[in-house]
Amino acid sequence: MASRKCGYSENSASTNSMARSPDDGQTWQNLPLSQCGRTNDWAVLQGQLYVAGQKGVGRWSETLQTWEYPMDGLPIDNAEDSNDRPYVYSFAVRGGYLFAGLAAHGVYVFEAQSETWAAMGLQGLSIDALLSYGDGLYVGTRDHGIYRAELPVIPPVSVQPQGKTVTTWARVKQTTHKRD
C-alpha cells in the first residue's frame, strides 16, 4: 500500500520489507530490513517512518540511512519465554504523538521531543487496532471489545493524581439490531 503523501510503502511480497520514494512515487527504493521482526503496522510521525513489529518499534533515519530503535519506556524483557516482550501490533498518530498497541501491555504513547514511551492504560490487554478519530482514540482489543479515550486537545488532556498520568477509558458497547 503506497502513500504518495508520506513517500513510504509496505512491500506486500515480504512481511517486514518497506520502501521509500524520494520523488513523489515516481521511483521506489527498498529500505534495509529492520530488526523488529515481522512488521505489523507502520506510521509516519513528523516526517519519519515508524514500524511496529514483533520485536518492538523501529524508526527509519533518512539522515543516517539506517534503522533506530526508540524503545525507552516500553515493557521489554528479552527472555524468549517472557510475556514482557515488546510485541507491537498497531499504531495511531495524533498531533506530535504516536500511540502503540502492544500484546498484553495495553496502549503506550511516544512523544517525539523526549524520545520516550509512557503507558496510557489497558495494561493486561492485547491491543490489535488503534484509530485516532475526532477527539477520541479508539482501541480494538483481542478479547475484550472496543474502548475509547477522549483526547480533546493536543497534547492529550489527562489528570495527574500523585504524579501519575491517568487516562480514562470507556468501553464501547455493541448496539444490537433486529435482523430480518
Structure description:
- This protein has 180 residues and is mainly β.
- It has one domain (32-172): YVTN repeat-like/Quinoprotein amine dehydrogenase (Methylamine Dehydrogenase, Chain H, 7 Propeller).
- The chain has strands spanning 2-3, 8-10, 18-20, 29-30, 39-45, 48-53, 56-61, 66-68, 88-94, 97-102, 106-111, 116-121, 127-133, 136-141, 146-150, 169-172.
- Strands 1-2-3-4 form a four-stranded antiparallel sheet, with no helix packed on it. Strands 5-6-7-8 form a four-stranded antiparallel sheet, with no helix packed on it.
- Strand 7 and strand 8 form a beta hairpin.
- It is globular.
- It starts with a strand and ends in an 8-residue tail after the last strand.
Q: Please report the distance between the alpha carbons of the first and last residues.
A: 37 Å
Major pleated sheet:
4 strands, antiparallel
CATH superfamily: YVTN repeat-like/Quinoprotein amine dehydrogenase
Structural class: mainly beta
Low-confidence stretches: 1-5, 156-166
**Total separate domains:** 1
CATH topology: Methylamine Dehydrogenase, Chain H
Shape: globular
Question: What's the arrangement of secondary structure elements?
Answer:
Elements: E1 2-3, E2 8-10, E3 18-20, E4 29-30, E5 39-45, E6 48-53, E7 56-61, E8 66-68, E9 88-94, E10 97-102, E11 106-111, E12 116-121, E13 127-133, E14 136-141, E15 146-150, E16 169-172
Antiparallel strand pairs: 1-2, 2-3, 3-4, 5-6, 6-7, 7-8, 9-10, 10-11, 11-12, 13-14, 14-15, 15-16
